[in-house]
């Protein structure tokens, strides 16, 4: 029965989601129209319920029927320090009172020997965690939701979730290092006795090469085997380094087997990692792989706000929007601009206003200011409102078309030197009184209606211009 469900589910979700969220589920029993499935953790259950209820419902409908019910059994580990209440829930389905619970003991890691490691200078007992990289400072958005949530889950129960290893991948400057460091910092805070180690792949490789040179490979390996939480950044740099990979593979296996948490980052998905041993790649995919994507507009705004707020600086929203519109791909770049903006402001003792933002940005990124042509303006309006050009210029008097049309006229009036008559011309030869009326009603709406003001601001921003 569960296999049938899986077949249906497989069609509805990506293969990545499928292997992450559905493959680990164990069917337990089927009784009274109720299918009981076992999930590895509370987090897992919550994630399923939040994101896949409809998918599950459909699968149940198709296999058991409309009256079918689904019941979760959450694996409870006794090694859990916080002992959360064991909950038992049914998603979206008519409730049932049955209480079936699975207890499972998770093997406790043996106490670690007091750390002794004197003979290799380059290896010290330091976590290499940077305190400023915290979850609190890592702004959540659609771009990073899975990675962030999984990171939190791992931080709360290192080694005890099914996310082992946790593999975070994504392009340059999208927050990989920040996120994996945040996990480390959080673990250090909650479990001070755990030995958390952050190491870049480059450093790991150098240490290994030195160990070969000094005949101290055993010391090197032993050092890593004492780690409770191993965080390795930028594993793509292992590519082509066979010996290092081999040693890393052994360390990985050993740690994984003893229930230690492993966290990895990479600039690309495991399947795109070339020059990597297959067995190592397959290990990378054992746990959870989550990608970080480019932040959307709102997330960029939140990131900038957070950075400024941390430095006690306030700027107007138009500057904020301008920045968020201008730098889209890379959070690091965004930060760079903010930093030089703050430097500029303190040097020149000027306020951070739109003018300063523009001149600073011009000197940093090549400005792709859009030309203020009639076509570009009309196109911006059609894109924003999702209407087509013919409708925008046409005669249809439906409210949802009239408003964009009036906004377009207003923009042309404000942003170009076109006479009213010419503006009318672009809208099927309407006369100038129509244009005046449009301009007036939009001006008034901007004053009286915040959402109209916001809309027009956004449109102006597309041309790196502020309203007023
Ligand atoms: P990567 O390792 O992926 O190249 P980093 O982790 O070094 O990227 O991130 C680059 C900069 O952007 C860092 O200063 C980091 O704090 C910041 N950053 C990235 N993502 C976020 C986010 N979601 N919220 C806040 N800051 C972020
Ligand atoms: Mg990095």
From TrEMBL:
Residues 1-85 are annotated as: Domain I, interacts with DnaA modulators. Transmembrane segments: none annotated. ATP binds at residues 173, 175-177. Residues 373-442 form the Chromosomal replication initiator DnaA C-terminal domain. InterPro entries: AAA+_ATPase (IPR003593), Chromosome_initiator_DnaA (IPR001957), Chromosome_initiator_DnaA-like (IPR020591), Chromosome_initiator_DnaA_CS (IPR018312), DnaA_C (IPR013159), DnaA_dom (IPR013317), DnaA_N_dom (IPR024633), DnaA_N_sf (IPR038454). Residues 162-292 form the AAA+ ATPase domain. Residues 346-468 are annotated as: Domain IV, binds dsDNA. It is found in: Cytoplasm. It comes from the Bacteria. It holds the Pfam family Bac_DnaA. Coiled coil: none annotated. Keywords: ATP-binding, Cytoplasm, DNA replication, DNA-binding, Lipid-binding, Nucleotide-binding. Oligomerizes as a right-handed, spiral filament on DNA at oriC. Belongs to the DnaA family. Domain I is involved in oligomerization and binding regulators, domain II is flexibile and of varying length in different bacteria, domain III forms the AAA+ region, while domain IV binds dsDNA. Plays an essential role in the initiation and regulation of chromosomal replication. ATP-DnaA binds to the origin of replication (oriC) to initiate formation of the DNA replication initiation complex once per cell cycle. Binds the DnaA box (a 9 base pair repeat at the origin) and separates the double-stranded (ds)DNA. Forms a right-handed helical filament on oriC DNA; dsDNA binds to the exterior of the filament while single-stranded (ss)DNA is stabiized in the filament's interior. This is Chromosomal replication initiator protein DnaA. The lineage of its organism: Bacteria, Pseudomonadati, Bacteroidota, Cytophagia, Cytophagales. The gene is dnaA.
């Amino acid at each position: 029965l569960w296999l049938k469900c899986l077949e249906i589910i497989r069609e509805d979700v990506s293969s990545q989601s499928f292997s992450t969220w559905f493959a680990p589920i164990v069917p337990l029993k089927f009784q009274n129209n109720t299918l009981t499935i076992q999930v590895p953790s509370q987090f897992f259950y919550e994630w399923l319920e939040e994101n896949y209820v409809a998918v599950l419902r459909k699968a149940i409908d198709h296999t058991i029927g409309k009256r079918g019910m689904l019941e979760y059994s959450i694996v409870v580990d006794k090694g859990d320090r916080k002992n959360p209440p064991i909950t038992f829930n049914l998603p979206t389905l008519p409730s049932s009172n049955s209480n079936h619970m699975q207890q499972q003991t998770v093997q406790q890691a043996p106490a670690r020997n007091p750390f002794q490691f004197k003979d290799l200078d380059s290896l010290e007992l330091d976590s290499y965690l940077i305190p400023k990289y915290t979850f609190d400072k890592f702004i959540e958005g659609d771009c990073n939701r899975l990675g962030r949530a999984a990171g939190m889950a791992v931080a709360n129960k290192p080694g005890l979730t099914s996310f082992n290893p946790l593999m975070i991948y994504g392009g340059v400057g999208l927050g990989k290092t920040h996120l994996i460091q945040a996990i480390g910092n959080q673990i250090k805070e909650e479990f001070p006795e755990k030995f958390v180690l952050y190491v870049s792949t480059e450093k790991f490789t150098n240490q290994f090469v030195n160990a070969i040179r000094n005949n101290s490979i055993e010391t090197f390996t032993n050092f890593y085997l004492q780690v409770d939480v191993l965080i390795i950044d930028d594993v793509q740099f292992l590519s082509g380094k066979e010996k290092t990979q081999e040693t890393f593979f052994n360390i990985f296996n050993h740690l994984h087997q003893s229930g230690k948490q492993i966290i990895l980052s990479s600039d690309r998905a495991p399947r795109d990692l070339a020059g990597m041993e297959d067995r190592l790649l397959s290990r990378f995919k054992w746990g959870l792989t989550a990608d970080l994507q480019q932040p959307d507009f709102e997330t960029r705004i939140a990131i900038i706000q957070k950075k400024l707020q941390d430095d006690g600086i306030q700027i107007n929203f138009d500057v904020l929007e301008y920045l968020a519109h201008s730098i889209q791909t890379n959070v690091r770049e965004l930060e760079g601009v903010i930093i030089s903006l703050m430097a500029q402001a303190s040097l020149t003792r000027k306020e951070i206003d739109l003018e300063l933002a523009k001149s600073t940005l011009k000197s940093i990124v090549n400005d792709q200011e859009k030309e203020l042509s009639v076509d570009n303006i009309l196109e911006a309006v059609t894109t924003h409102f999702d209407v087509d050009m013919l409708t925008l210029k046409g005669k249809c008097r439906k409210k949802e078309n009239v408003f964009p049309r009036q906004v377009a006229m207003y923009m042309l009036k404000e942003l170009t030197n076109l006479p009213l008559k010419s503006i009318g011309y672009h809208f099927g030869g309407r006369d100038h009184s129509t244009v005046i009326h449009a301009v007036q009603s939009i001006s008034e709406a901007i004053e009286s209606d915040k959402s109209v003001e916001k809309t027009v601001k956004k449109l102006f921003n597309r041309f790196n211009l502020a309203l007023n």
